[in-house]
Amino acid sequence: MSTVAVDLRRVKGFMVADAEGRYVGHVESPMYGTQADVPDALAVRSGFLRRRHLVPAAAIGAIDETTRVIGLSVERESIRKFL
Questions:
Q1: CB under 8 Å to 42, separation ≥6 — which residues?
Q2: Domains of the chain by start residue, with CATH
Q3: Dist. CA 21–CA 39, nearest whole Å
Q4: Strands across the sheet with 23-32, in order?
Q5: Is residue 51 a contact partner of residue 44, using CB atoms and an 8 Å limit?
Q6: Which of 55, 48, 53 minimizes the C-alpha distance to 83?
Q7: Does 4 have pLDDT greater than 50?
Q8: Can you spell out the DSSP letters for 50-67?
Q9: pLDDT of residue 46
Q10: HSE-CB for 70 with a 13 A CA cutoff
């Protein structure tokens, strides 16, 4: 996977996998916090019970635009869940 910086506003629908390659979900939308025009997290929705995970930009290890996969540098259990 490529480690080139990618605009997080353009990764909607990408699949997200944790550091061990396990499925986390698909990107639902970017989330903004500290700056109004720069996303600093992703809302990731899983298929099981439609839960959402909050994936901070710092947890993203690599993004492969050709396969539309985001690889995280953390395990799935360490990612915060929200409604």
A1: 8, 11, 16, 27, 28, 29, 30, 31, 54, 55, 57, 60, 70
A2: 8-82 (2.30.30.240)
A3: 24
A4: 60-64, 69-72, 15-17, 23-32, 39-45, 52-56, 80-82
A5: no
A6: 53
A7: no
A8: T-EEEEEGGGEEEEETTT
A9: 87
A10: 29
pLDDT in tens, 23-71: 999 999 999 988 888 889 999 998 767 788 999 999 999 999 999 999 9
> Is 3 a residue whose pLDDT tops 50?
no
Q: Which pair of tokens denotes residue 19?
A: 């550091």
Strand partners, 26: 15, 45
As a whole number of angstroms, the distance between CA 71 and CA 83 comes to: 23
pLDDT at res. 83: 67
